[in-house]
Design brief:
heterodimer, A: alpha+beta, 3-stranded mixed sheet, two-stranded antiparallel ribbon, 9 strands, globular, B: mainly alpha, 15 helices, about 70% helix
């Protein structure tokens, strides 16, 4: 019922916003590309050693980020940190959380980017191309996980985010964080196999896990999947409740509804011109 | 039928002009700092709040304030209300200035400005699903269209000037322009319809970061209706202000009848807003959203107040009343836009934004520059209609 109403509303919007608009075609959830790879992070296995953070710096030539001390202690993802371990604690309860790009199946950043600097490329990895980017930061507005980071203190800044070590994968390697993790808390593999593995763990130890694989359907699905402890729901780890609709779905429905085939704008232009011509012939009020 | 537009005349550099120059100069220095040091040290922006006042105010509110030309053109050329014609030129001028300076703000705001030139040319890279791409391309095109619409103003003056390059240019281009102008004006109606609505669509992607009172599939429609209402509000303000400042006959009767149209648009906006919330089952949020409820109610009040005031024909035929209403209309639309892009936007816990001082100084500088160019142009070129009343005497 709710779904029907939503679809109806979208149709109405498109019709209201442009009189000559073709009805919006509801598109379905994107499937993972056949060669999709991904990562599975199991928060119940992570001991917060941050080896992955160091390995990510080395693999991606990122400078250290000392904040309050002499050593590397980034407080969040930033223009110098593509991967971070955070800690959640409430009373006795502690859980670690690894943050990096989620490599969405249907990413907000890709939908946002004017010049397709953000693309979903080989293996479904979401990458950024500097030669196209004008630095408008719409990607950061559109990303529900706040992943794309900007080099705020540089005159010639880059947009920085995890690209799943695509340069290492291209040479037959795997993402640095997954390679070094001593507890195998984050593992790399084919997307479908990781999803199966996550479900297998849920089924094998239902008392251990919160009963959901985050990323299977959230925001249309992500290629990085998460498992968390039973007592620590995903929102405590900072993973938002997005529903199952892909983030760019609504704007696509509305924009395609209005601009399909560019018919509506052209028609409007012709109508406007025709009305003005008629007014001029009638001796209306212009010079 | 309409009176000829004539230059106001008088000295350019007045004490007020010097102050504007100062504000503008400070803005230029701050902007230079931004280009040397990057955006971080000069602004309050962060990865959570990647857009601040340069986008939310200078571009999103600024271009809507530049919708006077669009709103007047709809009335005069589409609804054939020729009586409003004297208001068109000054309205198009404020539009041309508003949009041009929004473009300047964008160049200052984007981090990798050296790639901007690729936007209109690298069509193979265009992401046609991006509402922002449509905004960017339409705004670029519209700036050009607005200055073409303004060009007869310059040609009129140059045609009567000394023989030379400018005069020859005016004489040779004017006839072609006269023929093409209708289709250019039609473009000047199409482009704002497209990009003002798309400015609303842009925030659809903000998804759960934008509060549900503002995040609705009707964003494009609400942005369109509000920008046209703001356009009329700006015309009222601009017309009363310039008749005061340059001591010209005021256009109160004309502006008063404009008030009827504006009132209808404002009521339509409020109706769409409330029906949408009811339809989505979110009416409860109006009172349960904490301090955002306050902003929603303030927005509703700012739209309803002028809408109701304008209903009375007698009340609105007073210049002072009209000015106050124009103010309210502009405030209402500005608040809606500013809230959608900043106040109701929340990237999650731990993030906050308040514009840094240099950031505000850049915005002030841009506004000051806009006012300066307006003053120079109306004093030297035939833009304002009607006989000057002693404005040239001092």
């Amino acid at each position: 019922m709710a779904v029907d109403r939503r679809a109806l509303l979208k149709g109405l919007t498109a019709a209201a916003a442009a009189t000559a608009a073709a009805p919006a075609v509801a598109s379905r959830r994107r499937e993972a590309p056949p060669d999709a790879v991904g990562m599975l992070y199991d928060a119940t296995l992570c001991i917060g050693c941050k080896t992955c953070v160091v390995a990510c710096r080395k693999a991606n030539n990122l400078e250290y980020e000392p904040h309050s001390s002499l050593w590397d202690d980034p407080v969040d993802l930033s223009g110098r940190t593509k991967n971070i371990i955070k800690v959640y604690h409430e009373g006795e309860r502690i859980s670690y959380m690894k943050q990096q790009c989620m490599h969405c199946l249907d990413p907000g950043c890709v939908g946002a980017c004017m010049m397709s600097s953000f693309q979903k490329r080989e293996h479904g990895i979401v990458t950024w191309k500097g030669e196209r980017c004008i630095g408008c930061r719409y990607c950061a507005v559109a990303c529900p996980y706040n992943i794309p980071k900007f080099e705020w203190d540089k005159a010639f800044p880059l947009v920085v985010k995890c690209e799943m070590c695509s340069h290492r994968i291209a040479e037959g390697g795997i993402p640095a964080c997954c390679e070094v993790c001593p507890r195998k808390a984050v593992i790399y593999g084919r997307y479908t196999e990781l999803l199966d593995e996550a479900k297998r763990r849920l089924a094998a130890q239902p008392e251990r896990y919160y009963p959901k694989v985050y990323g299977e359907k959230d925001g249309g699905g992500t290629q990085v999947l998460y498992l968390t402890a039973r007592e620590v729901p995903f929102d405590r780890l900072g993973l938002p409740d997005l529903g199952e609709e892909p983030v760019p779905e609504l704007v696509r429905t509305v924009q395609h509804g209005i601009y399909k085939g560019f018919i509506a704008p052209v028609a409007l232009y012709v109508v406007l011109g025709a009305v003005m011509l008629r007014n001029r012939k009638k001796g209306g009020g212009h010079e | 039928m309409s009176e000829r537009a004539v230059p106001v005349g008088g000295p350019i550099v007045t004490p007020a002009f010097r102050w504007l120059l100062l504000v503008c100069g400070v803005g230029v220095i701050m902007a230079a700092w931004r280009f040397l040091a990057g955006l971080g040290p000069v602004t309050g922006l962060s990865d959570g709040y990647p857009w601040g006042i340069w986008i939310a105010f200078d571009v999103v509110v600024g271009t809507a304030l530049g919708c006077g030309g669009y709103a007047m053109a709809i009335l005069v050329y589409i609804f054939n209300k020729g009586k409003y014609h004297p208001l068109v030129r000054p309205a198009v001028l404020t539009s041309a200035l508003g949009y041009s300076l929004a473009a300047v703000a964008i160049v200052i705001d984007v981090g990798r400005y050296w790639n901007i030139w690729k936007l209109p040319f690298a069509w193979r890279w265009w992401n046609l699903s991006s509402a922002l791409l449509e905004v960017a391309l339409c705004v670029m095109a519209y700036v050009i269209v607005l200055w073409i619409e303004m060009s007869p103003v310059f040609f009129e003056k140059w045609k009567e000037g000394k023989p030379g390059l400018l005069r020859n240019l005016a004489l040779s281009v004017s006839p072609i322009l006269d023929k093409a102008l209708l289709w250019i004006i039609a473009l000047g109606l199409l482009l704002p319809t497209m990009h003002q609505s798309s400015l609303g669509s842009v925030m659809l992607l903000a998804h759960h970061k934008l509060h549900p009172l503002w995040h609705t599939p009707l964003l494009p429609l609400l942005f369109l209706v509000s920008c046209i209402a703001m356009g009329y509000g700006v015309v009222v303000l601009e017309s009363t202000l310039s008749s005061r400042a340059f001591r010209r006959r005021d256009e109160t009767p004309m502006l008063a009848s404009l008030g009827g149209v504006t009132s209808g648009l404002l009521f339509a906006y409020v109706a769409i807003r409330l029906v949408d919330l009811a339809w989505r089952g979110r009416l409860g949020l109006i009172i349960s959203s904490g301090w955002l409820s306050f902003f929603f109610l303030l927005e509703m009040a700012l739209f309803l107040l002028p809408a109701a005031m304008l209903l009375s024909t007698r009340w609105r035929s007073n210049t002072g009343n009209l000015f106050r209403v124009g103010m309210l209309v502009v405030l209402a639309g500005s608040l809606y836009r500013f809230t959608t892009y900043l106040i109701a936007f929340s990237p999650g816990p731990g993030w906050s934004y308040f514009p840094a001082v240099p950031e505000m100084l850049v915005t002030f500088g841009i506004v000051a520059f806009e006012v300066m160019v307006y003053i120079v142009l109306v004093k030297r070129f035939p833009i304002l209609a009607g006989a000057p009343q002693g404005a040239t005497a001092h």
